[in-house]
Amino acid sequence: MDREIRYRVLERKSAEPFRLGKTVNMSSNGVLFTTDQFLNPGRYMELSISWPAQLDSKVALKLMARGRVVRTDQNGAAVQIHQYEFRTQAPL
Predict the structure, then answer these.
(1) Are 20 and 6 in contact (CB under 8 A)?
(2) In the 8-state DSSP scheme, what is residue 17?
(3) pLDDT at 9 over 70
(4) ∠ CA 87-89-90 to the nearest 5 degrees?
(5) Residue in 17, 24, 18 with CA at minimum distance from that of residue 73
(6) pTM of the predicted protein model
(7) For the stretch 46-57, what's the b/e string if a residue is b when 16 or more beta carbons lie within 10 angstroms of its beta carbon?
(8) In 3D, which of 37, 29, 19, 48 has the Cα closest to residue 76?
């Protein structure tokens, strides 16, 4: 599933701004996505993924997820999802 993703590293005292990427593949347990930076394994992330389905066929949705980076390379990172929820997405 090729979807737009916004991601950021969560720190104890603050959160970094969201950065943009694209999903490469997804499962119920994790997501592999492109990044423009190296993400250290073990970092806790927040992800916002545009969802292809709509609520009542008219309201855009996004998948909000949190999890840890389990693998990374120069092209992307894999995050194991620990929690997630669907939210409505504001119009662009």
Answers:
(1) yes
(2) P
(3) yes
(4) 140
(5) 24
(6) 0.86
(7) bbbbebeeeeee
(8) 37
